Write a sequence for this structure.
């Protein structure tokens, strides 16, 4: 299984609204997008005429080319965040430490 790149709403809106989805797919291949990004693309396409085509193209690509990622925390994500940050999984603060792990999460 290969890792899909994750796209943000800006490139999605810009490429899809001018019907350049083939170029986007040629560069990225199949890609992923969080639920929040999908919502933003669909909302912006309704609010701004410049992006109107993006919603139609997005819906056509979702079944094969775009994998929608849940916004909810998954056990896998929680494990990675804990490992990288050094923070306990229960949300409490560590008793000591430099906080170096938080910088790694933000990068």
């Amino acid at each position: 299984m290969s890792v899909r790149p994750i796209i943000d709403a800006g490139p999605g809106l810009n490429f899809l609204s001018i019907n350049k989805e083939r170029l986007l797919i040629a560069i990225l291949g199949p890609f992923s997008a969080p639920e929040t990004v999908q919502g933003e693309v669909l909302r912006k396409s309704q609010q701004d005429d410049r992006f109107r085509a993006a919603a139609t193209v997005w819906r056509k690509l979702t079944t094969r080319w775009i994998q929608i990622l849940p916004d909810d925390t998954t056990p896998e994500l929680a494990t990675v965040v804990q490992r990288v940050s050094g923070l306990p999984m229960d949300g409490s603060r560590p008793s000591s430490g430099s906080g170096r792990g938080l910088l790694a999460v933000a990068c």
Summary: The chain has two domains: 9-69, 75-106. Residues 9-69 form one domain. The beta strands are 31-34, 66-69. The longest helix spans residues 35-47.
